[in-house]
Specification:
Spore Coat Polysaccharide Biosynthesis Protein SpsA, Chain A; alpha/beta; two-stranded parallel sheet
Length: 236
């Protein structure tokens, strides 16, 4: 399969030293596929852009100004080529071998998400504030959308192309983008598949998520979403 892997970056200079190892593990996990790696620098103000330009084996798109993580994801998905696009965080919140399971999941779904809140998933060492927000938001989205998914907020996913480009039209630019994309997929009748995974804390740098701002954004999105009928287009 021909894959584009999108890596969003914003002020991630602290991760650049470990990036070659991340890329090696990523390529090893996807060695059965033709892989294009696309880094999106979202208007970083540190040395991220310069470091990415010096990193071999990747393509780089640079935003002149910060657009938010959803904006970086949208740019990556819109510029993806091949059969599918994967979004992966360069701080490796999930082990790279999980990417192979994401691709395999495309046999069962059009959108495949890693799922730490799946009964067979797990969370290790994640700060309680982030965990409370993510798990709580996923439960609210599950109730609101009436879809039998366990995780709605994980951004590490695989999407079939070219359909994924239709999903990103109008998507939020903040951390609610992942949940919005599930809603957009449900509205289009996409099959959604979950892969159990282990979520771990980032090894370097700091998360750019602002807790209370993100809570407000999730509540706003929850209020804007239509209540959808329960369907069986999801699987684990």
């Amino acid at each position: 399969m021909r894959l584009t892997v999108v890596l969003p970056f914003y002020n991630e200079e602290a991760l650049l030293a470990s990036l070659p190892g991340v890329l090696d593990r990523l390529r090893a996990a996807l060695s059965d596929h033709e892989v294009r790696i696309l880094a999106v620098d979202d208007g970083s103000r540190d040395g991220t852009a310069a470091g990415l330009d010096k990193t071999p084996g990747i393509e780089v798109i640079t935003h002149p100004q910060n657009r938010g993580v959803g904006g970086a994801m949208r740019t990556g998905i819109e510029n993806a080529t091949g059969d599918a696009v994967l979004v992966y965080d360069p701080d490796e919140p999930y082990p790279a071998p999980s990417l192979a399971e994401l691709v395999a999941g495309l046999e069962h779904g059009d959108l495949v998400t890693l799922s730490p809140y799946h009964p067979l998933g797990a969370v290790e060492g994640v700060p309680w504030g982030r965990l409370l927000l993510s798990r709580g938001a996923s439960r609210l989205y599950r109730w609101r959308m009436r879809q039998p998914l366990h995780t709605y907020t994980c951004a590490v996913r695989a999407y079939r192309l070219p359909g994924a480009r239709e999903l990103v039209a109008g998507m939020p630019t903040d951390f609610t983008a992942a949940a919005y994309l599930v809603a957009a997929a449900v509205a289009r009748g996409w099959r959604i598949h979950e892969v159990p995974a282990v979520l771990r804390p980032r090894p370097a740098g700091r998360s750019k998520m602002r807790l209370f701002r993100t809570i407000r954004s999730h509540l706003r999105l929850l209020g804007d979403l239509p209540v959808t009928p329960k369907n069986d287009n999801t699987g684990s």
